[in-house]
Amino acid sequence: MNEKTSYEIMKNRELLKAYHKADAGAEQTDQEQKLPSIPCLQAPKGTKTIKLPTDYHSLTMTGTLLDLIQKRESRRKYAEEPLTLLELSFLLWSTQGVRRFAGHNNPVTFRNVPSAGSRHTFETYLFINHVEGLPKAIYHYLPEEHELEFWEDRSDFSQELTDALCGQRFAAFAPVLFVWASIPYRMEWRYGLKAAKYLLIDAGHVCENLYLACESIGCGTCAIGAYDQDRLDELLGFLPGPSAEKNYSCAVYAAPVGKRISE
Ligand SMILES: Cc1cc2nc3c(=O)[nH]c(=O)nc-3n(C[C@H](O)[C@H](O)[C@H](O)COP(=O)(O)O)c2cc1C
């Protein structure tokens, strides 16, 4: 390892000690300075939306929690079969579904996954190849409405997506690829220097819920951390960083989903 890389790695390790740095720095966060936050949900783009069904009890679910934890594994091969809209809806609800709002001036959401200070920085984007009733396109999940909106009405993303996923074709061609993009300012407003660490920890909860929810309905998934940041962000229409903009978004984590091939 050369000196420059070694220095960068050492700097990255400081992220793990964000508590210490923030406490020593004693700089007030934007919340402490009584600055306004930004909305806890991204406003719809105003394109056509698709209502998601919610009769999850009609899904065929198998396995106790013990079974699901024991059987969970990263699955990279999927059946030809499409996902149903109800299955996709259940997976979105399990990973980012909103249960309730709290607070007046700066409302926050409480969801099916935990988040530091309930700041929930993630927006979910879906690259859909094969879901019953949905044309191939890029979608954005609206958790409050529990709807999908067209993010990019284009079906020619496969090659660009494969490149953005560093050649991981199984993920680019899966029936659905979930991409979680963070709006870090939602967390920074309250936690300042601790925000980056917290939002990355949050991502783990989201993806683990996806793993377990997939297992329960005969689907499989695989966490994806190997991707080309600039290409994936560009595909989603985000401005390249670094940026101090409050609405700055960047992809953080991804996961393809498909029906399991029977063992
Ligand atoms: C943060 C993170 C990033 C990962 N990135 C990838 C990836 O880009 N491609 C891949 O095939 N698997 C990826 N994985 C899956 C791991 O390779 C997998 O979890 C590990 O081999 C253990 O296997 P298991 O999940 O079946 O227990 C990732 C897992 C995590 C938690």
Write the layout of secondary structure elements.
Elements lengths: L2 H11 L4 H8 L23 E3 L13 H7 L13 H12 L1 E5 L5 E4 L10 E7 L8 E6 L4 E6 L5 H7 L4 H4 L3 E7 L2 H7 L3 H22 L2 E3 L7 H7 L14 E10 L4
Antiparallel strand pairs: 1-6, 2-3, 4-5, 4-7, 5-6, 7-9, 8-9
Helix pairs in contact: 4-8, 5-9, 7-8
Bound molecules: flavin mononucleotide (FMN).
Please tell me about this protein's structure.
With 263 residues, this protein is an alpha+beta fold. It contains 9 helices and 9 strands. Strands 1-6-5-4-7-9-8 form a 7-stranded antiparallel sheet, sandwiched between helices. The mean pLDDT is 94. Bound molecules: flavin mononucleotide.
Which key features would you list for this structure?
263 residues, alpha+beta, 9 helices, single chain, seven-stranded antiparallel beta sheet, NADH Oxidase, binds flavin mononucleotide, 19% strand
Helix content: 25-40%
Instruction: For the largest sheet, list the strands in their spatial order.
Output: 1-6-5-4-7-9-8
What small molecules does this complex bind?
Answer: flavin mononucleotide
Principal-axes shape call: globular
Helix vs. strand class: alpha+beta
The tally of domains stands at: 1
Which sheet architecture does the biggest sheet show? 7 strands, antiparallel
Brief synopsis:
The N and C termini lie far apart (43 Å). The protein has one domain (3-259): NADH Oxidase (3-Layer(aba) Sandwich), CATH 3.40.109.10.
